[in-house]
Amino acid sequence: MRHSPMLAATLVSVLLTSCLPAPQAFDPARQPGPNDLGAHNAATEWWYASGYLPESGLAFHWAQFKVNYRGIPYHAGHLAVADLRNKKLSLFENGSQRASFSFPPLKVRQGDWQLLQGPDGSFHLNAGPLDLTLRPQKPLVAHPPGYSGTPEVGRLYYQSVTRLDASGTVKLPGGELRQTHGQVWLDHQWGDQQPGAQAKWDWFGLHLSDGSDLMLYRVRNGAGQVVQVAASLVDPAGVAQEVPGVTMMPGRVWRSPSGREYVLGWEVKSPALSLTLEAARDDQELLTKNTSIAYWEGPVRGQGEVNGQAVTAEGMGEFIGGVLTRAEGGRFGPPGK
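^ that's the sequence the OP posted. Answer follows.
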């Protein structure tokens, strides 16, 4: 007897689901380990490497997602490369379900994209046009209190290597092979949050001229209400501390070609710091069809004071714009407009 493709897919889904353990529940009392870069049995997990490389005229954002979607593993990769000299943005999506994860050392593979950690602790990122070596200048840290989010919108354990020296090449559209160097930020998060619909956020990973690094995180619920504002400062020695009393005040708004609005100008204040931040380039919206998420990811810069000392800031910003409809090409979004 022949089965229909839909019935066959259903049978495969049932068999796969029955073989997989349920994702672990999020426990806020459990802190991530000091060197825990490996994969977890979580509903959502990702590794990000992002860098604003002004001397090379580039910015890039690589993301690897590992999702438990209705009991079935699902993998998605994104890579955005901004050629700042020629004002061009290229987005690459990796939909391969041939993926593997191991640690230690960290090995993240999806199809022919990979992030591999070497014996000396450095990372080799080979994804699409990227061929980069990333050498950590600071240790892995857990951002206080060890996670982002709230019980309402879901929570994600949160670790970063906030400063890595990048070297290598990026092959640009048209064939130019551009030599690349600069500072990169590596993130690792996992937990029970569903980005886009359940939770949205405004995030910065910034390298400051005094040698410290600043993480800013403003989390919003599905209705757009702010439910958390968090920040941590990683000092030149690599020690992460919470920045208490921080506020992130939205300023200039940019409306994208998709009709979504993103705040691209910000005033950040706390008793210890005051920063004005601005996008280095506006047109950085990513409409990622393999995750159905619309978000702005791109280079930012600013200036201000930290502990009474004047500083400049360079890094990346990420602002979640919501879920793609199926009419926009979204794989898991609502039917359309």
